Amino acid sequence: MNARLGSVTLLALLAGSRADAQVIAITNGTVYPVSSPKLDSATVILRDGRIAAIGRGIAIPPDATVVDAKGKWVTPGLIHAGSSLGIRLTDSGAQEETQEDVVLGEVKASFNVAEAIDPASMTIPVVRAEGVTTALTMPLEGLIPGQAVVIDLAGDRLEDMLVRSPAAMIVDLGQGGKTGGGGSRAGALFRLRLILRDAKEYAQRKEDFRKAQIQPLAAPAPELEALQPVLAGELPMLVIANRRSDIASALRIAKEFTLRPVIWGGAEAWQIASDLALAKVPVVLEPLTDVPRFNALNARLDNATLLRKAGVEVVAAQRDAAFSRDLRTAAGNEVRNGMTWDDALRSVTLAAATALGIGQRTGSLETGKAANVVVWSGDPFEFSSRAEHVFIRGVDVPLGNRQTELRERYRKLPPAR
Q1: β-sheet bridge partners, residue 295
Q2: Taking the alpha carbons of 15, 74, 34, 46 in that order, is the dihedral positive or negative?
Q3: φ, ψ for residue 157 (rounded to 5)?
Q4: Virtual CA dihedral for 229, 153, 131, 72, nearest 10 degrees?
């Protein structure tokens, strides 16, 4: 692992372990670990921000706070694999003052979105109340928009929230990246290949570059330097692509440069499911908007089902902050269109964690993993169910937010005059 990545991840884990050293015992629940079969009437012990034990017949520590989950469902916290949480307040009328996910230019590999995140963003509590505990926050616009980061949705400081930074390099091979190639997808692909080749040459000839004894390169030195972890296979390249042709281009480039691609969008991915499965490339879909449109005429609602049947690791997401709260609805939509319930849960937990390189830390209920756990009133993919307890790093976080405050404020209207 890249030393920079490891240090940030360790910092986040240490920050999470400060949660007042509390012990929580979630008892009598129907537990869905994801990485193993469900457990009826089981107990999950949370200690010092981690899962200390899980199973049936576990002794309850005498100092534990007990949460009786009888009749409830217990799952890992949901993971949103591609959001604008903390950097864009979508319900503000798209005011420029609330948008922090875009910087000028087409090649911005060195741009890391982390310090644009506002821990006090009003969208975070709303999404957290829907059982989402972790998210990939990503920049947009340009051929290479920049670096995405993984955050836990709790904490008053950025240092308390960061899990992995950077977590992925974003590359847009769809409509958003065309301008980077002069307005053509072919031009964008040509420029991306040129940038990757020059990044490799730059790494081998840094001294020549300093002495100006090298031909002009396709991007400034900071951008080429930022691409080195991608070329070394240490950082995944998250490729925004919906058309079949764009997805196929991403696979070709990944093979040429030995990269670790993750397809984001993938509306027509079902058409080359076998290629994706063979290359072991995960696909992040938006199940609620997976319908035909100009940049994906062959989209279909059972996309996730067809990909999963072919052996592709499928992840569910909804990019816009206004829709991030609908993550569990998106997963439920996968079930509605043929995916198994277990695979749908995996698509918003362990599959997402694995695709983002944090599968050893979170995404399933296993001893030693981060204590990101949700207690639901029922099936989380049922519209009528709700998250009753959301634990992030072992802390039972409050579920109040601006929307619940508005609900309470106007629950009883003043009498008409």
Answers
A1: none
A2: positive
A3: -125, 155
A4: 110
Contact 91, 325 (CB under 8 A): no
Q: Residue 262 and residue 234: Cα distance in Å, rounded?
A: 13
If you search the block for the tokens 């993984």, which residue do you land on?
Answer: 150
Q: Which of 140, 242, 249 has the alpha carbon at shortest distance from 193?
A: 249
Which helix (H) or strand (E) covers residue 264, if one does? strand 261-265
> How far is the C-alpha of 195 from the C-alpha of 191, rounded, in Å?
6
- Predicted confidence (pLDDT) per residue in 357-398, tens digit: 999 999 999 999 999 999 999 999 999 999 999 999 999 999
Residue 37 exposed, middle or buried by CB count within 10 Å (0-12, 13-18, 19+): exposed
State pTM to two decimals: 0.90
Q: What is the CATH number of the domain that holds 240?
A: 3.20.20.140
In a domain, 323, yes or no: yes
% of residues, the chain, pLDDT over 70:
90
The distance from CA 33 to its chain's CA centroid, rounded to whole angstroms, is 19
Residue 127 within any structural domain of the chain: yes
Asked if 21 and 61 touch (Cβ cutoff 8 Å), the reply is: no
Helical H runs in 205-338?
206-210, 221-226, 228-231, 244-257, 273-279, 303-309, 321-324, 327-336
Question: What span, in angstroms and rounded, lies between the C-alpha atoms of 46 and 51?
Answer: 5
How many structural domains does the chain have? 1
Residue in the structure block whose two tokens are 């920079």: 4
Q: Which two tokens stand for residue 414?
A: 């003043």
Helix axes 185-204, 244-257, angle to 10 degrees: 10
Strands 261-265 and 283-285: parallel
* Residue 415 within a domain: no
CA–CA separation, 237 and 109 (whole Å): 11
Residues 6+ apart with CB under 8 A from 6: none
What is the rounded distance in angstroms from the CA atom of residue 209 to the CA atom of residue 110?
Answer: 18
- 63-72, 106-115, 190-199, 316-325: least confidently modelled range: 316-325
Q: How far apart are CA 158 and CA 25, in angstroms?
A: 28
Asked, for residue 417, whether it belongs to a domain, the answer is no
Please give the residue range of the domain that contains residue 190: 3-409
CA angle 163, 323, 118 (to 5 degrees): 40
